[in-house]
Amino acid sequence: MIKHKKGQTVHGWKIKQVKYLSDLKLEFVELAHIATGAKYVHIDRADSENVFCVAFKTIPEDSSGIAHILEHTVLTGSRNYPVRDPFFSMIRRSLNTFMNAFTGNDWTAYPFATENKKDFYNLMSVYLDAAFYPTLSELNFKQEGIRLELEGGELKYKGVVYNEMKGSLSSPERIMEEAITSSLFPGSNYRFNSGGDPKIIPSLTHADLKRFHARYYHPSNAFFYSYGDLPLAAHLKVLHAKVMKNFSALKIDSKVKSEPRWKKSKTAVYQYPVDSETDTSRKYHALVSWLVSPVMDAEEVLVLELLEDILLDNPASPLRRVLMESGLGSDLAEASGYNAELKDGIFSVGLKDVSKHKIAEIKKIIFSVLKKLTKTGISAEAINSSLQKLEITHNEVVNSPYPYGLKLWFRFIIPYIHGGNPLSALYFTKDIKALRKKLKQKNFLEKKIFKYFLTNKHSALLILEPDKTMQAKEEKQEKESLAKIQSRLSVEEIEQIKKDSQKLKELQETKEDLSCLPSLGRADIPLKIKKIIADKKYSNQYVISYTAKTNGIFYWSAIFPIDSLSNEELALVPLFCHVLPLLGTKQKNYLVLAEAISALTGGVSVFFQTASDRTENRSKAYIIVSAKCLNTNIKKTQSLCQEIMAEFDFSDIHNLKKFVCEYRSGLETGIVEEGHILAASLAAKNLSTVSALKEMWGGLSQYEIIKKITEKLDEKELKDLSDKLSKIGKKLFAKEKGKILNIGEEKALSLTKNEFGNFSELSSEKLDINNIIKLDKKKQKTGRYLATAVSFVSACFKVVPQNHPDSAKLSVLSKVLSRQYLHNELREKGGAYGGFSRYDKSEGIFSFGSYRDPHILNTLNVYSGAKKYVLNYAFSKKEIEEAILQVCSELDRPASEAEEARGAFYRKLYGINDKNRLDFKKQVLQVTAKDLKQAAKKYLKDNWQDYSIAVISNREKLVETNVKLGKDGLEISAV
Q1: pTM of the model
Q2: pLDDT tier, 763 (very low <50, low <70, confident <90, very high otherwise)
Q3: Tens digit of pLDDT for each residue in 812-866?
Q4: Is residue 17 scored above 90 in pLDDT?
Q5: What is the pLDDT of residues 771-825, one digit of tens each?
Q6: Which of 189, 386, 389, 180 is nearest to 292 (CA)?
Q7: Residues 6+ away with beta carbon under 8 Å from 902
Q8: Which residues of 280-303 are buried (b: 16+ CB within 10 A; e: fewer)?
Q9: Sign (positive/negative) of CA torsion 222, 225, 231, 234?
Q10: CA-CA distance, 603 to 418, in Å (whole number)?
Q11: Is 190 helix (H, G, I), strand (E, B) or coil?
Q12: How many CB atoms within 10 Å of residue 837?
């Protein structure tokens, strides 16, 4: 039943359009504010995870990062909430399921999500006040953006965003993104880096920031959004009272200039930093990028998404296949595919890890394949497979990595801010129906290839070349620039810098009265937990089935214990997972298998998982083969997955080599972006069997294993690797050891095969991983270097797991340290993008970490001070309550019904029952300040040297740190 009517006026807003979308089970409402022209989209859906967002078009006029720094600074105090850090304070005072802020190329957004009604309006009040009435103090601008400080008598640049962008632009993938936009849009605002270029950020002034806010942060330039089961009228009433009644219409020029289309394509060369020890002979990236249609044209967006899937999605996709079979690169370049995040879309394709002299050949291959496709045509099977995949993507309800309501916002916000119809981006059934009709026209897609790629001269060949001296040159330039500035400063100006630094330090160290901020309390935390029960009708000893509302999508998994592999074989498990669904079976070669997976499913994934079983008091590990499909393809999908497991074939060593190199390339890509995760994994590797496995399978150790394998991949080595992988498969997929997990609607479950197919009947030799994995009792003190301008610093130590009485105390302690002590010391004072502490209750491991950090030793010393901080600090009841709220927010995080079912299955697999979960939650709710001090005294150390340490940074910073540490230095080696 539709709740809203077109033309209706509500609290000063007029409803422009209303549409019920049956496929997504939601009511779409678009409104316009009568007085200011502000825009609003509301999605009414039976979902308790309500979302709110306010966004603005923010058009950068240079690469100073003004929009990005403003995004940070508006969250550091406002008219009704004049405290230093209301955003991070509200994280502590809320049961939010998501809180963040984003800076895009031409927009800035402030979204949050929560299941609690009171919390929703608390957060809405703080967010609106921050966006429309921020204090924008100069000290906060200097903290979040950029400032000068004297350190050891020398000037240094400091600032959270400054360090964030130094870290971000250490990645070749991020540099390529900037290369694409600056090359294809030389005359528009997209040529600028909206996040900020560290070389340009220092030119930004506080006055510039305030002018930018006054220009763009106005209702006439605002796009509001809400989603969920809370009523729209209540949102509009609050919005009117807090904001809209205070504003009148303002004419704001926030249009992005359209780029004049070129008559001739271009070539552009950019550099990215690599370590001086890197062999650069095959470290170039080559990419062809085209400017395609405006993203406001929903039908053309769908066409380009379809072309992306057909051309590049899987090993059998024609463009990907020829590029990868050429052997000219290790993998597709990260930016390959269709990008609809700007006013005009971009389509790119290329390779990474290529030789300089092969770049022209790569471009030739790309155009040759595209030209051939316009002549030979695209098969109906390939088109139908890709259409099906688009349908699965559209219909699937998933709450990760963002809440589902926010994912819907991402679908329409870009065309919406550029004047498009927001409904068009969600009205999939209408557009797909129109597209299917057009696809019946002769050569419809082939003509699109001709239009967008072969005759489109607005394209560029983009080359990234490795530069061993780039990082050193940039650091030298920065030092020289600062020395030049310092030489020109008067005594009075130097004194002012010192005074500003002292003022900022005093601000950061002043304990504030946060009573002006709204808050939830313990009474608002639900005492119950969500319980998910398997459907006995469709379950047996080996098959566990869950009934769930899945929007016509079925989820299937086969789970096998990893309990029969040697230490050498264990190291190859991630590679085995990567190549298993790629290489083919005894019935199908790798191309036929790829086509079958594409035709029947939304993807087949193979992955590993490990955790401790507290019931059996031992570590467990599993390999999981998982697939999702439409209900119409259930039986065929199950048969295909069972064929992959029972009839795998690793004998195609030519393609095995290709997929191994592709796997290595993927590992390399994640190192800089996931530096904090990798540092923590490395630091924890000797603290438990599970931690050792996680490091072996997902840490730098895995990269080192694969790097060693790929150094010599001749025919003999490949044959040996093929035999090892085959042996692993035979050991793992034994019939009597596996379990099947089915998740879907009841009609779908009735179609499933509740049995295993043609698997090995033989029992494999059982080997206990707890005995195979040998832990080194020596504490880690390691530093790994690569080309990065920032550091990731981790310290880990063993505590107790969830079944211990201190577990709840440690959970709350980790939140107190993260949000109060480490946030203040590492981010506000130190300028790191992030600082945190985490308690892994499954393994009983406590950790400290920093992200995009300008320091190493200072950060380690902060970790040393954590114990003293807790023991000396007078915690208020409210501060303890805030930390408890954070723990419970994570415990009760909402998920789709399919995700909840999956979670219930894996909890049971690792011996976690609902009573354990409820008992733990009750214990968390009872934690006191006294408990925190006892836990800190018992588990935290006085000196970071007593923790296990891992640091990822550049070589110069690590060497500099070791000079200061002397005999207590880190063991340094290259990544």
Answers
A1: 0.94
A2: very low
A3: 999 999 999 999 999 999 999 999 999 999 999 999 999 999 999 999 999 999 9
A4: yes
A5: 888 888 888 899 999 999 999 999 999 999 998 999 999 999 999 999 999 999 9
A6: 180
A7: 555, 557, 741, 743
A8: eeebbbbbbbbbbbbbbbbebbbb
A9: negative
A10: 33
A11: helix
A12: 22
Amino acid at 870: V
Residue among 569, 575, 565, 568 nearest 656 (CA) = 575
* CA atoms within 13 Å, Cβ hemisphere of 221: 23
Asked whether 120 and 910 are in contact (CB, 8 A), the reply is: no
- How is residue 193 written in tokens? 């880096």
For residues 285 and 334, give the distance between their C-alpha atoms in angstroms, rounded to a whole number: 10
User: Residue 37: left if φ>0, alpha if ψ -120 to 50, beta else—which one?
Assistant: left
520 vs 508: CA distance, rounded Å: 25
Q: What are phi and psi of 96, to 5 degrees?
A: -55, 150
Specify the pLDDT at position 936: 98
Structure-block tokens of residue 484: 């030049």
Helix (H) or strand (E) holding 830, with range, is none
CA–CA dist 837, 944 (Å, integer): 14
What residues form DSSP beta bridges with 57?
107
At a CB cut-off of 8 Å and minimum separation 6, what does 720 contact? none
- Which one, of 32, 43, 58, 56, lies nearest residue 2 by Cα? 43
Give yes or no for a contact between 130 and 87, defined as CB atoms under 8 angstroms apart. Answer: yes
- Catalytic pick from 30, 49, 71, 334? 71
Stated length of the chain: 975
**CB of 167 within 8 A of CB of 852?**
yes
d(CA 937, CA 867): 7
Cβ-contact 625, 607 below 8 angstroms: no
Q: Supply 326's token pair.
A: 């050429």
* Domains of the chain by start residue, with CATH: 9-246 (3.30.830.10), 279-398+420-467 (3.30.830.10), 551-772 (3.30.830.10), 781-974 (3.30.830.10)
Partners of 290 in beta bridges: 347, 459
How many other C-beta atoms can be found within 10 angstroms of the C-beta atom of residue 628?
22
Q: How far is CA 448 from CA 308, 314, 373, 378, in A?
A: 12, 21, 11, 12
Is 924:888 a contact under the CB 8 Å cutoff? yes
Residues 6 or more apart whose CB falls under 8 angstroms from that of 933 comprise 870, 871
Tokens (6 digits) for 492: 């009075």
3-state secondary structure of 545: strand
Q: Where are the alpha helices (DSSP H) in 313-379?
A: 318-325, 359-376
Strands 604-613 and 618-630: antiparallel
At a CB cut-off of 8 Å and minimum separation 6, what does 358 contact? 328
- Ranges assigned E (strand) in 326-483: 331-332, 337-339, 344-354, 459-467
C-alpha pair distances (Å), 862 with each of 485, 821, 825, 951: 31, 9, 7, 15
Give CA–CA dist 321/591, Å, rounded. Answer: 9
Nearest CA-CA partner of 866 in 831, 924, 823 = 823
How far is residue 438 from each of residues 386, 387, 433, 521, measured CA to CA in Å? 15, 13, 9, 57
DSSP 864-878: HTHHHHHHH----HH
Tokens for 749, please give them.
């479950």
From the list 929, 700, 893, the residue with the least C-alpha distance to 98 is 893
Amino acid at 578: H
Residue 108, SS3 per DSSP = strand
Other CB atoms within 10 A of residue 636 CB: 14
* Phi-psi group of 12: left, alpha or beta (phi > 0 → left; psi -120 to 50 → alpha; rest → beta): left
- Which structure tokens are listed for 785? 């270097």
> Could you confirm whether 475 is annotated as catalytic?
no
Among 706, 714, 622, 700, residue whose Cα is nearest residue 663: 706
What is the Cβ-side half-sphere exposure of residue 120, based on CA atoms within 13 angstroms? 22
Least Cα distance to 787 among 309, 457, 464, 364 occurs for 464
